[in-house]
Structure formats: C-alpha cells, structure tokens
Amino acid sequence: MSENIQDKTQDKTQETGAGTEKLRSGFAALVGRPNVGKSTLMNALIGQKIAAVSNRAQTTRKRIQTVYTDDRGQIVFLDTPGVTKAKNRLGDFMLETARSAMAEVDLVLWLVEPSTFIGAGERTILEKLKTAKVPVVLAINKTDTATPEQIAACIETYRKEMEFTEIVPVSAVKEENLDELLKVIFRLLPEGPLYFDADTVTDERMRDIAAELIREQALRHLDKEIPHGIAVLVERFSEREDGSLTDIDATIICERESHKGIIIGKKGAMLRKIGSGARREIEEMLEQQVNLKLFVKVRPDWRDNAMLLKEYGYLAPKKK
To answer: DSSP assignment, residue 74?
Structure first.
C-alpha cells in the first residue's frame, strides 16, 4: 500500500483558486469474482487504460492503484484480483491481496453481474463484507447484457443477502451510469485532502504497466491453460537520450518447454502477434514510439516457488 494511505491526519481542507473548500478523498477497493469487469470499470472511471483486461480468469493478479480527481475531491481506486479458491502460492497471494485491500480502505465497491444466481465466489465475498466497517456499494455491472426486469430481480436478490449502503447498476463497457457511481462514492468518502497531485492517474511504474499490457496480449492470443502459467518480467525500460523512442526488453516466463513452443509459435508468429499488440498499447500509454523485444524462458512450477514469485513481483502473503 502506498505511504499516502497512512497519512490521514493532514489538514482536511484544500486551497483552491476560489478559497478554502472542503474536499472528499479516500480509498475505494474494487472487489468481485474473476471476469466480473473490475479492471474494465476502473479503466473507464479514470479515463485511461492502466489495468490489463481480458475475458480470462486471473487477468488481475496484483493490487493496482489508480487515481480519479475532480473538483469534488479524489478517489484512489484499488483494483484487486478476483476472489476464487487458491490452487498454488500465486493463488494465495492473490486471495490475500483482495482480502487485505478490503480491510485498508474507506469504501468497498463490490461488482457483480446482473443475475439472481449467487455462486460460491459471491458467497465468500459476502461473508467478508458482512463484517466490513466501511460503506459497501454494490455495483451491478454489465447492465448492457440484461433487461430492466433482470436488473431489478438481481437487486432484489442481493438486498435479501445484505444491507448495502447503495446499489448502483452500471455498464463499464458502455460507460453507462458511471457519473452516478462517482457521485455515490464521493458522497460516502470522508472529508480530507488530496493524497496525490491532481494530475496523477496512477502511482504504478510505467514498466510494471507495460508488463501487464504484454501479459494481457498473451491472455488474448494463447489458448486453454497456458496463460495462467505465464508471468512477464521487464528487464529493460529506457528512453533514448533524444526522447524519440523507448526501448523495452521483456521476458515471458512459462512453466513447460511445450508451452514455450506454443508462445513462440511457428517461425515466431505467435510471439510477434503478442509483441505487436502489446507495442501498440504501450505506445498509446507512453505517447511515444516503442522498440519492444520479447523473449521466452521456462521456469518450472514458478507459481509455487516463493523466490521466483518475489522476483516477478508477487510478494508472498503473510501467514496467519
């Protein structure tokens, strides 16, 4: 967690051109089961792509922090991994990341799909949220895929399970009703100063975002279980002296030799496809041309190797 989250004793006013005006600022955790659209919603709310997005589980593995600021104050969003049963040390890390985020914020934003079925993943989250000491907002996402009657039935189903502070239907993909969601969040946040400069969108390093964008392209193009067994390590990220280009060397880590062959593809075709898509995304982020070189290495069972998890940016969760 950023150091800023600890500093809540600052003067609760912000000097503006019009004088001293009270602002509302705080931290909001986005939680939900895999593939419910947390990263898509966060990207839509801040108006910039920071988190990787795909239709596969485990797209988000780490807690990603982004910042939305307007004249009402500042919302620091924490996008968390989807809550699901852990199958290895990486899964333990992801589950603990989601749990700890819920305990450290000013508000929890729980995303669900517009359905009356409450599965095991939702039940796990419900049990945690029922003991939450902060406001819990239920956001029913993907309303563009449901009828008004289905959305109303979903709202009624969840109301019977828990008393939410607010329930807001939204469509992250269509960017529908996001203004209402922001209005609700600001109303529920405490009065306080801006934690980041007004023009800050994220405190994530550009090289880490680049790694996630590369992994996103692998998720999009690779089949079956291979994407779950890959990580991306950016080993060089440097802008040339004349500012004309950024050079990036990155390695895709996989668990088996057979997977390495699939990732590279026939005559390197798959690796080029992944690299081409990632380069476009990174160039859009940096607003600069990028020279991206991709490599592939095999590290058997890295998802259960504490040393490799740490090297790839997944710190082992604390034992309870």
So the answer is: E
